[in-house]
Amino acid sequence: MANDPISQFQISKLIPIEIGGLDFSFTNSAAFMVATVAAAGAFLYLTTSSRGLVPGRLQSISEMAYEFIASMLRDSAGSKGMHFFPLVFSLFMFVLVANLLGMVPYFFTVTSHIIVTFALAMLVIGTVIIYGFAKHGLGFLKLFVPSGVPAAVLPLVVLIEVVSFLSRPVSLSVRLFANMLAGHITLKVFAGFVASMGALGAAGAAGAVLPLAMVIALTGLEFLVAFLQAYVFAILTCMYLNDAVHPGGH
């Protein structure tokens, strides 16, 4: 990899494909998205295919992940929200595994590209809108009209609610993208300090101890952020789906 900390996010074509003047090339980003789905699917299949009455370590991890998302969804959207469990669980596992794969040296972090995170966010918001209107019809619009608001300020409140709703996919996608991008750039910068100072001889090697310690600390922090960002994405998804299930706030 180049010393440029941005080089790790560059898209490269693995299999050039052009149809009708449009570029459908299979890229390193697409390859790691496939790898993410394959890794998550393989882990869940292997850990649950031979379920035991007394679960082993890996089976326990799968069951804990299942109960973690199920409990989160029930608390946020109620029992009716469990209809969306496959969606929320899939999003959580995809984001988590993609973040963890991105921690492997020379691997690609797909969640560091805003087009990927925005697509995931639009999937969530699109589900909210489609289900909300399909289930409640025009009653879904009660989401933008909070109860108990005086008529004098109701237009302003409705405008604020609409803008807030439209900003959700932006905030949901930018939060994940920005955290992964900033964390990996910081890691690459400090790792570059270690390599540069180590090349200066004994004195440089001694001076490289501090940035090396920072790299180790930041690596541990990035693993924590990888999980936290998957959790934040999932919990916000649950909260948004609650608006589709209960647009009146009941």
From TrEMBL:
Q: Which Gene3D superfamilies has this protein been placed in? A: ATP synthase, F0 complex, subunit A (1.20.120.220)
Q: Which residues cross the membrane?
A: 30-48, 84-108, 114-134, 143-167, 187-216, 223-242
- Domain of life of the organism in this record? Bacteria
The UniProt record lists the keyword Ligase: no
Where is the protein situated, by its record's location annotation? Cell membrane; Membrane
- Annotated function: Key component of the proton channel; it plays a direct role in the translocation of protons across the membrane.
The protein here is known as: ATP synthase subunit a
Organism equals Nitratireductor basaltis
State the taxonomy lineage.
Answer: Bacteria, Pseudomonadati, Pseudomonadota, Alphaproteobacteria, Hyphomicrobiales
